[in-house]
Amino acid sequence: MTATPAGWQSNPSAWSQRLPLVALAAAGFAIAGYLALYQYRVVSTVWEPFFGQGSRIVLNSPLSRVLPVSDATLGAGSYLLDAVTGVIGGVRRWRSMPWIVIVFGIAVGPLGLVSVLLVIAQPVLYGAYCALCLASAVISLSMIPGAMDEVLASLQQLRKVRRDGGSVWLAFWKGTPS
Amino acid sequence: MIALFLAALVGIELMASPALLDSPEPVSDSFRTAGPLIATISFLSAFSILRGLRWLNLLCSAWLVIAPLIIQHATPALVNSTVAGAVVAVLTAVAGEGNARQRYGGGWRSLVR
């Protein structure tokens, strides 16, 4: 049986779709990790090619310390979650493991949009941009379209299970046999 | 798709415009908020799977057109705000629905049918 969902032109869980997202998540993890190391002064300076003092202002702002850990640390954790949930499961995971697809979708989608909100908040509150923070936001955004098609395939599958009178709960956690 | 990538570029122009036009607050806040929102919405909706999100651009467009009536803009900032708002609205309107329903088994709409 083909791994491509009925009515679809390609399989959203194929490795050719997922591995680029995992690579982006790894790049995002590297950038956010570096910014976090600066915030905790493991490295004493931060690379900023365009905006002068911008990165320093943004990365040391009160907003970046609202939570118990710095915002870049949260970002790094979120990219790590993206990468891990991106590699778990085979090419049929949209139907065999909907739960991991949904966790992946939440990690990439809503958590990715948080990084965009930070990009909005930084210049409005502090009048400064931070080049690597912008790069991180671009990476977060680039991952969203590629992850959402897989979420749609899983939701369509769960809806089909429900229409056929099956248990959505079981299908969500255990998958649907082919 | 190309129309929405162009709209995203308008968003990036708005992000840079307070520096280019030397706009004071709160005009700069208006550009620095509408800019990344338009860039984000336009980029995401350029992909057919998320094309439905494009209409959110119209809220930002409407704001950019009426903002000069609410907060005082210098002439270059007024032109920038109004033209950018209008251009984004036009690009959003001409973008079309895309082929998500054919490519993705009925698309998001299939979930509520």
Structural notes for this entry:
With 178 residues, chain A is mainly alpha-helical. Chain A has one domain: Up-down Bundle (de novo design (two linked rop proteins)), CATH 1.20.1440. Chain A is 67% helix and 0% strand. Chain A is built from eight helices and no strands. Chain A has helices spanning 15-39, 54-59, 71-87, 93-96, 98-108, 110-126, 131-163, 168-174. In chain A, helix 5 (98-108) packs parallel to helix 6 and helix 5 (98-108) packs antiparallel against helix 7 (131-163). The model of chain A has no long low-confidence stretch (mean pLDDT 92). Chain B is mainly alpha-helical and 113 residues long. Chain B has one domain. In chain B, 70% of the residues lie in helices and 0% in strands. Chain B contains five helices and no strands. Chain B has helices at residues 2-21, 27-46, 56-70, 75-94, 100-103. The longest helix of chain B is centred in the N-terminal third of the chain and has 20 residues, at 2-21. The model of chain B has no long low-confidence stretch (mean pLDDT 93). The chains are: A mainly alpha (178), B mainly alpha (113).
Task: Give me the secondary-structure category of chain A.
Answer: mainly alpha
Q: What ranges of chain A have pLDDT less than 50 throughout 5 or more consecutive residues?
A: none
* Oligomerization state: heterodimer
Percentage of helical residues of chain B?
55-70%
Span of the ends, CA to CA of chain B: 26 Å
Portion of residues in beta strands of chain B equals under 5%
Estimate the global geometry of chain B from the Cα principal axes: elongated
Q: Give the overall pLDDT of chain A as a whole number.
A: 92
Q: Tell me the CATH architecture of chain A.
A: Up-down Bundle
